[in-house]
Amino acid sequence: MRTKLARWTMTGVALALAWAPDAARACDACMGGKDPNLRPAVNGAIFFMLGMVAMMATGVGLFMRYLAKRESMPLPPHAELGLTNHV
Fold first, then answer.
1. Which has the closest alpha carbon to 45: 28, 25, 29?
2. Rounded CA gap, 2 and 8, in Å?
3. Which of 45, 52, 56, 87 has the fewest Cβ atoms surrounding its Cβ within 10 A?
4. pLDDT confidence of 57, banded at 50, 70, 90?
């Protein structure tokens, strides 16, 4: 029942977009517009956001590498004393 409803919904959405293709077009800012200074500004903003995403992903990756490296290091002598098993 649910799969039929989802299928009919997706078919309806696809038909609605096919019926009115003007609604799926980009705005004037993305398509160039009338202002010649707008396109370089939009491109700069896009590359800035991509750079921020890349910088955050690099930071997360480096932190994970640091944690993996720290996990494989041996314990310092004072920390090993607390791990002895007393029977």
1. 29
2. 10
3. 87
4. very high
Give CA torsion, residues 30, 35, 36, 39, to 10 deg: -20
The answer to whether 14 and 6 have CB atoms below 8 angstroms apart is: no
Nearest to 23 by CA among 32, 13, 35, 9: 13
- Please tell me the distance from the alpha carbon of residue 40 to that of residue 42, in angstroms, as a whole number: 5
The answer, yes or no, to whether residue 75 has pLDDT greater than 90, is: no
Tell me the one-letter amino acid at 87.
V
CB distance 84 to 76 below 8 Å: no
d(CA 68, CA 78): 22
Domain boundaries, given as residue ranges, for the chain: 2-74
- Mean pLDDT, the chain, rounded, equals 81
Tokens encoding 23: 């609604």
- Extract the tokens encoding 59: 């930071």
